[in-house]
């Protein structure tokens, strides 16, 4: 049975119920769901899963449009400049809209809070802390001891300047270690080095870890959350192991150009709520260890601002400068 959070169910119900009482905005004949990455990844998969339910809800044609490059920033820049008539929707993770907005602030030709409207949060997932399955480390306390005893403590992530990178910095500070960040070119080489025992620890999305965890190839010793994840309840949280750094949550959201009429934004928001109420869609998301996490536009806008405020000092204090 697909797992849908109780709050999401309530929000979905309220949003769907409001449809009957609203005036339908005129939608364009074709809507593009812009995915800022190549086909095959989690963002692309989500877009393709939600494409048909969204099309049914809006009663217009919806297609997926992949525009990879520069970690998603090229697509965001393009969407900002497109017609604000409801014909284009950017589907993006907060690694792009929050972290990259801070890391590349001086290099971007857009500002996420000014040039886009946050339409709906769609789904969420946690980040996990993993070690090789051959490691004797089974808890955060044991990892802390091992890192403090090591002459060269280090951790790896799927890339420099991403959410996992900065999560590792905050985690290191909380447990009292100054460890070196090792950036890999993607999640696959990171996991490969963990499996091979060439890396003492790695931080990545649970989406990329869970298959290897359940196959016994790596050991996820904790997730960066204050409560266990319902799609992987066997993995303890860092909070219950004494690490008080708060939750680090990844999410996928929908954004449109800032001047898109409010009635169109509202209709698209409600359509996403209706699409995410599908048990079939939720079942397929759950298999990817992704949880439906619908949030309406007003709340989602507030969340976006809160995240930027949360991560800005972390990025600034890290001294990290993109190449």
Task: Report what the structure shows.
This protein has 323 residues and is α/β, with parallel strands linked by helices. Helix content is 44%, strand content 21%. It contains twelve helices and ten strands. The strands form two sheets. Strands 1, 2, 3, 4, 7, 8, 9 and 10 form an eight-stranded mixed beta sheet that branches. Strands 5-6 form a two-stranded parallel ribbon. α2 packs across α10 (262-276) and α4 crosses α12. The termini are far apart.
Keywords:
323 residues, two-stranded parallel sheet, 12 helices, 44% helix
Q: What is the average per-residue confidence, as pLDDT, rounded to a whole number?
A: 93
Order of helices and strands: HEHEHEHHEHEHEHEHEEHHEH
Continuous helix count: 12
> Which percent bin holds the helix content?
40-55%
What percent of residues are in strands? Answer: 15-25%
- Regions with little confidence, pLDDT below 50 for 5+ residues: 17-23
N-C termini distance: 45 Å
**Biggest sheet statistics:** 8 strands, mixed
Q: Which structural class matches the secondary elements? A: alpha/beta
Rg over CA atoms, rounded to whole Å, is 20 Å
**What is the overall silhouette?**
globular
Task: Summarize this entry quickly.
This protein has 323 residues and is of the alpha/beta class. It contains 12 helices and 10 strands. Helix 1 (6-19) packs across helix 10, helix 2 packs across helix 10 and helix 4 crosses helix 12 (297-318).
């Amino acid at each position: 049975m697909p797992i849908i959070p109780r709050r999401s169910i309530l929000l979905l119900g309220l949003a769907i119920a409001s449809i009957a009482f609203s005036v339908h905005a005129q939608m364009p004949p074709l809507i593009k769901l812009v995915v800022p990455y190549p086909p095959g990844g989690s963002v692309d998969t989500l877009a393709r899963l939600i494409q048909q339910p969204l099309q049914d809800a809006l009663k217009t044609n919806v297609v997926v449009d992949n525009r990879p490059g520069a970690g998603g920033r090229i697509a965001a820049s393009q969407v900002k400049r497109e017609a604000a008539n409801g014909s284009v929707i950017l589907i993006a993770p907060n690694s792009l809209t929050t972290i990259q907005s801070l890391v590349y602030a001086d290099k971007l030709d857009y500002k996420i809070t000014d040039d886009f409207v946050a339409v709906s949060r769609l789904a969420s997932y946690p980040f996990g802390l993993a070690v090789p399955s051959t490691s004797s480390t089974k808890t955060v306390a044991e990892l802390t001891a091992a890192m403090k005893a090591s002459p060269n403590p280090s951790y790896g992530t799927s890339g420099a300047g991403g959410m996992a990178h900065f999560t590792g910095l905050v985690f290191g500070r909380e447990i009292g270690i100054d460890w070196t960040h090792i950036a890999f070119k993607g999640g696959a080489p990171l996991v490969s080095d963990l499996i091979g025992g060439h890396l003492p620890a790695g931080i990545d999305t649970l989406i990329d870890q869970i298959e290897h965890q359940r196959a016994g190839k790596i050991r996820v010793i904790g997730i960066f959350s204050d409560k266990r994840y319902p799609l992987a309840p066997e993995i303890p949280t860092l909070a219950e192991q004494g690490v008080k750094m708060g939750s680090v949550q990844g999410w996928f959201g929908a954004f449109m150009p800032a001047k898109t009429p409010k009635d169109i934004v509202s209709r698209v928001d409600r359509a996403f709520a209706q699409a995410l109420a599908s048990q079939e869609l939720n079942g397929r998301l759950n298999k990817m260890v992704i949880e439906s996490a619908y949030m309406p536009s007003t709340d989602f806008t507030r969340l976006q601002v809160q995240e930027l405020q949360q991560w800005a000092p972390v990025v600034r204090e890290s001294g990290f400068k993109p190449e």
